[in-house]
Amino acid sequence: MIFSMTGFASVATELDFGSLAVELRAVNHRYLDLQVRMPDELRMLEPMLREILAAGLTRGKVECRVAFSARQSGQNPAQINLSLVQLLAQWSREVQDILPGASGLSVADVLRWNGVLQNPSAPADTLQAILPDLVRQVLREFTEARRREGEKMQDFLQQRIEQIETLCATVAPRIPAAIAAYEEKLAARLQTVLQTGEDERLRQEITLFASKIDVDEELTRLQAHLTEMKRVLAKGGVAGKRLDFLMQELHREANTLGAKSVDAEVSRVSMEMKLIIEQMREQIQNIE
């Protein structure tokens, strides 16, 4: 299977003293760009966390968030940082000395001040023992979500490959008719201008025209690129860069096909191919 670079997963576990949660989200990126946000008491585990994630990811801009929420209890409630409260009181008095009309801090203002209420610290050793398994679990769920999205992309690309193959099949039969029409037109023009039946000159002109509109090579290369796409999709794994390169090659051949066209239907086919290729390219940007 192929995998999408975009995805989201989160897991959490409840502990006696609070809850520990890990969240993964990702968008497309040329390389692996891993950002980790976690509490300071767990920061020492960041290298280990990065190692686990890097082993399961290849490309994408990935953000990993680790959050701990302490549980309050009557036996171990939050504590007030008295030194900070005293400092706030001192600042309030100093401001009122300068600005007598200024309002003082209320109790609610003080309690909302960052750092005034101190939650009981979680046992760091317990969190450190639990976090690696939690990260591996969220990575498995994240990978599964990316696999499901990749499966949808694979079906989409397979359908577009079939559409291009169908369009290719309509081009080749039209070339002999285009040459025959040109031969008739050229013969009439030469006979009118030269008043002679210069068969050799006529054959040369037709041969030159046929070589200019010959699209066998383009159709062969288009089919070769489509076959390679099928092989890459069937193989699975990290395929995004390879598929993106194939999109460039497909677009080149479809463009050349349009440039050689002397038939309105072939021109339409070329345009339709380029639209389908662009649709595929948009999806491929999200493939790992």
Automatic annotation (TrEMBL):
Pfam families xref list: YicC-like_C, YicC-like_N
Name under which the protein is recorded: YicC domain protein
Species whose genome carries this gene: Candidatus Nitrotoga fabula
Family of the protein in this entry: Belongs to the YicC/YloC family.
Domain Endoribonuclease YicC-like C-terminal: 174-288
GO MF annotation list: hydrolase activity; RNA endonuclease activity
Cofactor(s), by name: a divalent metal cation
Cleavable signal peptide: none
Annotated ranges, domain Endoribonuclease YicC-like N-terminal: 2-154
Top-level taxon: Bacteria
Keyword annotations of the record: Endonuclease, Hydrolase, Nuclease
